[in-house]
C-alpha cells in the first residue's frame, strides 16, 4: 500500500514543510484537503496561477498528489450548480498536479429517501462527467454522512458510472457510525474501494474536542477502533492502493501536533507489515 498524509493534519504548515516532512518520515503522497487558511485549494494561488511551481516542488522531492479532497456533495439538489462549478476548478487543478483522484461526498437532504438521493447523485455525477477532462479522473464517494453504511453506498453506486467512480472507505466512519466490522464493509464494497482513510479515536463523551458521537482522535494504534483489523482485512482482500492518514487537526485543534502524528502513523503501519 502507498501512504499519503492529509493536509487536514497540518493546517498551519506551508508547502515546503508538508513536502519535506512527508518525504522524511516515509510518505508516498499528499492528499490535499485545504491549505493553511483556505479549505478549497482550487481558490489558492499555489494551486492556480502558481500550480506548475507547486506541482514541481512535490514531484522534485519524490512525492505524488494522491488526491484532492473536495467539498462536493453529489446528492444535494440545491447545490448542483455549485458542485459542478467546483468540479470544473478541480479538473483543472488535478490535471496540473497529475492527480487522478477526487474525493466527493454523497450528502443530501435527510428528509428525502435513499433512492431519491441516489438518483440526484447520479444526475450530478453525469453533469460533472460532461466537463472536459472529468472522465479522465476517478471520482470517489466517501463513506460519510448519509452514505456511511455499505448498503446505502451500494445504492448510490447503482446510479454512478462504474468506469469513472468508486468508494473512498473511511474506516473509522463505517466502524463507529454504521457499526460494521472491516470484513463486513469489504464484503459489500470491496470491489469498488480504491482509496482508504485511516484514523484512530478513543471514546470520551466528556472531552471538549470530541466528535458528535463522543470520540476523540488519537495517535494510530492507541485508540479504541480496530485499525489493526482494517489493515489486516485490506491485506487479505488484496488491496494495494492509497492509505491516507486523515489526522483531523483542522477540525480538532487539541489532538496531537502533526510533528508527532505523521511519523507515528508511518511507524504504526510499518509495525504491522
From TrEMBL:
Gene3D superfamilies (alphabetical): Divalent-metal-dependent TIM barrel enzymes
Keyword Protein biosynthesis: no
The entry's keywords: Isomerase
Domain of life, per lineage: Archaea
Xylose isomerase-like TIM barrel domain mapped to chain residues: 23-271
Gene Ontology molecular function, alphabetical: isomerase activity
Keyword Acyltransferase: no
InterPro entries tied to this protein: IolE/XylAMocC-like (IPR050312), Xyl_isomerase-like_sf (IPR036237), Xyl_isomerase-like_TIM-brl (IPR013022)
Entry-linked PANTHER family: HYDROXYPYRUVATE ISOMERASE, XYLOSE ISOMERASE-LIKE TIM BARREL DOMAIN-CONTAINING PROTEIN
Name under which the protein is recorded: Sugar phosphate isomerase/epimerase family protein
Naturally occurring in which organism (per UniProt): Halocatena marina
